[in-house]
């Protein structure tokens, strides 16, 4: 029996993946406003991870290198700018559950040239953001939301509009300075804006608010995996360090009624967080929550571990900082824990798994390089940093998502 050629194997694989993608796409279109962050079974998550990596590389095998390189260089820029424009104009909210023409949307949104708007919407539909249908007789094109564009609606349970506004606007310019940053050994954000990102946010109240909302939005994207695949009930109190508005902690307290929590962040952030909690959450959760102003880069400002089985949680915190700053943060945590042997530190990060990991993790790593001189790290790198600051890396818990939970215990002095 003749062996199948590589081309034939790839063709069969493509057909299988296309059928699977079509099935998944149809199932997601049935209710585009539902909470789509529910977890797949472990076997499906593992298979999906490998399949996604294959699909990422597939165009490299079938397109001529010059064509693929130009598509990579320009396609990402074009697509991201189209999405940002769609979000900024409020297209998804304006469409809602209806189908509308560009002329109807232009009238609603106060846009003078409906033809230009139609070109923008058609481009978005061409790569799957929005759905477009053309009448065979009149050639009229109507647009409506699909599962992708729906998450740009403010009323969607998994809305990402704040992530786009809070993360994108201030970062586009710094990405132009990657090469210059490498030549000067400087942070591209600092070159572009004349100040570091934290000072920039401090000086721009609106951007700082949008940034905190973006962090809350990201919480929702990975929250189910973190809540389900790690056992939070083993702790008595969770101190969420760098909590922003405490969205993750709120979900945890809702799921675990015996747990208490601490929202710990900079003064101006904690004040807004406490105001939001008073209006958003029931007293049964608020009564179990403390709001503490802290700066984890300053000695003695973190809450002390004053009871058994406390957990300090840092979600997407250490990747914002260079190794020397991470050592400062971890030493301050070790000081706060003191001689409490039952306290633990939980680092929620997208731990790099080697060169075969998903490209999104490495693109996130470049985002950290551009924005704050931070980085994504491997398990070995976390282990060394923890060892240097009086901790022992006990284990790394996998979750069904990009995040892993690095569990560290204090070492007795």
Write the layout of secondary structure elements.
Layout: H1 6-29, H2 42-62, H3 65-89, H4 91-95, E1 100-101, H5 102-109, H6 114-126, E2 131-134, E3 141-144, H7 147-150, H8 161-168, H9 172-175, H10 178-184, H11 188-193, H12 197-203, H13 205-229, E4 237-241, H14 247-255, E5 260-265, H15 267-280, H16 283-286, E6 289-293, E7 310-315, H17 323-337, E8 344-349, H18 359-371, H19 379-387, E9 391-398, E10 404-410
Parallel strand pairs: 4-5, 4-7, 5-6, 7-8
Antiparallel strand pairs: 1-3, 2-3, 8-10, 9-10
Helix pairs in contact: 3-6, 5-6, 8-13, 12-13, 13-14
Task: Describe what this molecule looks like in 3D.
The protein is α/β, with parallel strands linked by helices and 413 residues long. The protein folds into two domains: 41-150, Winged helix-like DNA-binding domain superfamily/Winged helix DNA-binding domain (Arc Repressor Mutant, subunit A, Orthogonal Bundle); 221-410, Rossmann fold, CATH 3.40.50. It is 54% helix and 13% strand. It is built from 19 helices and ten strands. Strands 6-5-4-7-8-10-9 form a seven-stranded mixed beta sheet. A three-stranded antiparallel beta sheet has the order 1-3-2. The radius of gyration is 23 Å and the shape is globular. The chain starts with 5 loop residues before the first helix and ends with a strand. The model is unreliable at 22-28 (pLDDT under 50).
